[in-house]
């Protein structure tokens, strides 16, 4: 895999990560809610107009365009597993931005993901 292809994949992953973090920020801004028949429309509208969630949808849209470009250059059997980098980046970002905890199991799991990405990217 060349640098351009790898960069496209990483850019797609980062758009996905940004979208996930923006959705979390958006749901934090909206607060806890339950869907019921009475509040589907009010909560749905609140979520659809929350700026973080709107930004997340834009990130997903850009991410799809980048992903199409990446898949035009790389086999899906190589590119798709590299999406798992998003788990590592999200965990670190969630720790930094939302004070989510790390534990030994998460750290070992992230290490295994990184090792897997290295192995697959050299295939």
Number of strands: 0
Spatial extent as radius of gyration: 17 Å
Largest sheet: none
- Number of helical segments? 6
- The whole-number mean of residue pLDDT values reads 92
What percent of the residues sit in helical stretches (DSSP H or I)?
A: over 70%
- Structural class comes to mainly alpha
Q: What is the count of distinct domains?
A: 1
**Strand composition percent:** under 5%
**Oligomerization:** single chain
Shape: globular
- Uncertain spans: none
How far do the termini sit from each other? Answer: 8 Å
Map the helices and strands:
Elements: H1 3-30, H2 40-48, H3 51-71, H4 76-82, H5 85-98, H6 104-121
How would you summarize this macromolecular structure in one to three sentences?
This protein is an all-alpha fold and 123 residues long.
């Amino acid at each position: 895999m060349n640098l351009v292809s790898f960069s496209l994949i990483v850019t797609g992953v980062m758009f996905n990560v940004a979208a996930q973090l923006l959705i979390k920020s958006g749901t934090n801004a909206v607060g806890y809610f339950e869907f019921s028949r009475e509040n589907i429309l009010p909560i749905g509208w609140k979520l659809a107009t929350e700026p973080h969630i709107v930004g997340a949808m834009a990130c997903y849209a850009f991410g799809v365009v980048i992903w199409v470009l990446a898949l035009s250059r790389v086999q899906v059997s190589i590119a798709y597993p590299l999406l798992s980098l998003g788990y590592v980046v999200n965990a670190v970002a969630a720790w930094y931005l939302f004070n989510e905890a790390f534990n030994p199991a998460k750290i070992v799991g992230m290490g295994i993901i990184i090792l897997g990405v290295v192995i697959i990217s050299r295939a």
